[in-house]
Specification:
By secondary structure, the chain is α+β, with helices and mostly antiparallel strands. It has helices at about 5-25, 45-50, 80-90, 160-175, 180-190, 195-220, 225-240, 245-255, 260, 265-270, 275-285, 290-300, 310-325, 335-345, 350, 355-365, 375-385, 395-404, and strands at about 55-60, 65-75, 100-105, 110, 130-135, 325-330, 330. Helices cover about 55% and strands about 10% of the residues. The termini are far apart.
């Protein structure tokens, strides 16, 4: 349908059928290609079961300078979260009904969360900033947007490259493995009443890692430090490859290939030859020609644990969805559902094969690539990864690059 009439209703019916198939079928139904996720899981309780035990950490501003960092469950609605925030800000005498939670994007656009909205953290934009505002104020000033301040004293170069790559991989795996297969159904069929928090968070994380690569390099004013930072990212990307973390590998290589970085001729000329060769090898793996055949071959040859390139996986799923009619002659196309089920089910065994550091480290020690990392450095890296500073405006990044 041109305007979402009958076609829109049909699409909802297809999504409902897919979710229902996933709720009640077994792995042998529909010829072994059904949309199967978890036995006995219904569309009504899947999202709640998926979200209720997951926590997010967010920073909420009471004013431009006063804020609190708070942990909340993804299933927590806005109204309950506001009540928690008033306790944190020692304003328990205030009525939560008189407050509204806002996000201010990096461009200054405001978004108010409704009282029943959940999964607040997954709905934040890059560099989005949460504000708690009193509705009864006589004069409501515009909320301030966040201004990213680049630090010339970043501890990034002090971190152990392997440990950074490993902790990055552990966080990536946790995020990827938490994506419930039903979220792909909700994402593809545009279910407005279903939340795809884990999927959105993982896409968001990819963008953060890529932009962090660019931002961190541009924050270095000294040419030698800038070159050392590029070298550091190449080493981390190499370890991500050894760890089969293709998602962060693509994000870092993409950041290094960003026009704001690739144009820094003096920086690249100072880079030792072996690192240039290593970077070229990584670029070959990520070559987009022939539908990223090099990556697909590397992925097939890898032994679990593996984290796939999520952007390409979403592209494949979306291609199947948009390239095949959901309804044919008034009937739901189960051929399409089988294809979607097949590609989604291929990922499930990988999600159940976690990383075990002892085994991985032994492998890398054997290759002479790993040194022991102190617990304090490990904690510092973990904290650093949880608060990455990025600039999300390409024009700003290019201007910073030209100023170097």
């Amino acid at each position: 349908a041109d305007n979402g009439g009958a076609g829109s209703s049909a699409g909802a019916a297809v999504a409902a059928a897919a979710a229902a198939a996933g709720a009640n079928a077994t792995t042998d139904s529909f010829g072994g290609g059904s949309l199967v996720f978890q036995q006995g899981l219904t569309a009504g309780n899947a999202e709640y079961a998926m979200q209720r035990s997951i926590k997010d950490v967010v920073r909420v501003y009471w004013s431009d300078t006063l804020y609190k960092t708070v942990t909340l469950m993804r299933s927590t609605p806005t109204r309950a979260f506001i009540g928690t925030l008033l306790q944190k800000f020692k304003a328990t005498d205030r009525d939560p009904a008189n407050y509204t939670l806002y996000e201010v994007s990096s461009t200054g656009v405001e978004h108010a969360f409704t009282e029943t909205e959940c999964s607040i953290a997954s709905k934040l934009t890059l560099n989005g900033r949460l504000h708690l505002r009193w509705n009864l104020a006589d004069d409501v000033a515009p909320l301030s947007r966040i201004d990213v301040q680049l630090s010339a004293n970043s501890p990034f170069l002090l971190f152990d490259s392997f440990e950074f790559a490993f902790l990055l991989t552990m966080q990536d795996f946790e995020g990827w493995a938490s994506i419930d297969p039903l979220e792909y159904v909700y994402h593809l069929f545009k279910h407005k009443n279903q939340v795809t928090s884990n999927l959105n968070n993982f896409v968001h994380r990819f963008n953060v890692i890529s932009l962090f690569t660019v931002t961190e390099i541009l924050s270095c004013r000294q040419p030698k430090r800038r070159m050392e930072t590029v070298k550091k990212f190449i080493k981390i990307a190499t370890f991500c490859r050894l760890l089969n973390n293709f998602n962060s590998l693509v994000a870092i290589v993409g950041g290094l290939s960003n026009i704001a970085i690739s144009r820094l001729r003096n920086t690249w000329e100072k880079l030792p030859g072996k690192y240039l060769d290593t970077f070229k090898d990584l670029e070959v793996i990520m070559d987009p020609s022939r539908n990223m055949l090099n990556y697909r071959n590397a992925f097939k040859a890898a032994t679990p644990p593996i984290i796939p390139c999520f952007a390409l996986f979403l592209k494949d799923v979306t291609f199947i969805h948009e390239g095949n009619e959901s309804v044919v002659d008034g009937l739901i196309s189960f051929d399409k559902l089988r294809m979607l089920a097949g590609i989604i089910r291929e990922q499930q065994p990988l999600r159940r094969t976690p990383y075990h550091k002892d085994n991985i480290c032994a492998e890398l020690v054997r290759r002479g690539k790993e040194k022991e990392c102190s617990p304090s450095m490990r904690d510092s890296i973990r904290d650093f990864l949880c608060s990455l500073v990025v600039i999300d405006n390409q024009k700003t990044l290019t201007e910073l690059s030209k100023a170097l």
